[in-house]
UniProtKB/TrEMBL annotation:
Keywords: Signal. This is SGNH hydrolase-type esterase domain-containing protein. SUPFAM superfamilies: SGNH hydrolase (SSF52266). InterPro entries: SGNH_hydro_sf. One of its GO terms (molecular function) is hydrolase activity, acting on ester bonds. Gene3D superfamilies: SGNH hydrolase (3.40.50.1110). Residues 1-28 form the signal peptide. It comes from Sutterella parvirubra YIT 11816.
């Protein structure tokens, strides 16, 4: 009888262990620092600025993928998106205050007596250097300028967001440091973190044969840029892109099955990361 009770107890523990394992999102293994800004945006943004480098510029720009999802989605979103990138650029390269100020002939600037009548952008996304969150030398500057830019963006009446990038193809283990550093800095600056890197790693785990990188093992392939855009869509509008019939449009569209898979990964990653139901 004692032996039977022991076996029953072991079976019960095993069941709980399996249940616990299943209930924890796979991407959660990639980070320990919990995001502090998790509520959906109060309303859909109408104008966005994305500041970054070639990670956001490749494959006709992530804003192109985002725009395609917005146009094909229901309800259709008409958010205008400006992409400002500098090759190999760190956040320190960008004069954010100047970006948010009125310029002659700028269609986004509604000016009266030389001053903006309202902020040019509802949201401003900051995408840093590929090693900003993993290089010992770069992390202090990433932190310094992410926080400084967040203050500048808020002073201009806009909402700052921090994009979590992805590790190099041959250094997948870097995702833990990359994610925790980005989330910590975002938390300290009161910024929402956009979990693109977590979605990247989840896609690779589920479909290791799907190429997410260019041959340089750093920049995103078309699939990578598409996933980036889908994560932005889910994070900015607070809803799933899963049913959107958009396959991409730079050079050649993705296979329907691949696009659907990436949209699903994007939504699950965003939903789990923010704790949305």
């Amino acid at each position: 009888m004692q032996w039977e009770k022991h076996l029953t107890a072991l079976a019960t523990l095993a069941t709980f262990a399996v249940a616990a394992t299943v209930s924890v999102p796979a991407a959660a293994a990639d980070y320990k620092v919990a995001p502090s800004v998790t509520a959906p945006l109060e309303k859909s943004p109408k104008v966005a600025l994305l500041i970054g480098n070639s990670y956001s510029f490749y494959n006709c720009g992530v804003h192109t993928a985002l725009r395609g999802l917005m146009q094909k989605g229901e309800p259709k979103e008409s958010m205008k998106t400006r992409l400002l990138t500098i090759s190999s650029g760190s956040l320190s390269f960008h004069d954010v205050a100047q970006y948010l100020s009125p310029h002659e002939q700028d269609p986004y600037a509604d000016v009266e007596d030389g001053k903006l009548k309202h902020p040019m952008f509802d949201v401003v996304l900051l995408q840093g250097h590929s090693t900003a969150a993993t290089s010992k030398k770069r992390v202090p500057y990433f932190e310094k300028y992410a926080k400084a830019h967040a203050e500048t963006i808020r002073a201009a009446g806009s909402t700052p967001l921090l994009v979590m990038t992805w590790p190099k193809k041959d250094k997948p283990e870097d995702i833990r440091k990359l994610a925790d550093t980005t989330i910590r800095i975002g938390n300290e600056a009161g910024m929402r973190v956009v979990p693109v890197g977590l979605a990247f790693m989840e896609a690779i785990r589920q479909k290791p044969d799907l190429e997410m990188y260019m041959p340089d093992k750093s920049h995103p392939s078309m699939a990578g840029t598409y996933l980036y855009g889908a994560v932005l869509y889910a994070s900015l509008f607070g809803r799933t892109p899963e049913a959107i019939p958009y396959l991409g449009e730079c050079e050649k569209p993705l296979p329907e099955e691949t696009a659907a898979f990436l949209r699903g990964v994007a939504w699950k990653t965003v939903k789990d990361f923010y704790g949305w139901k």
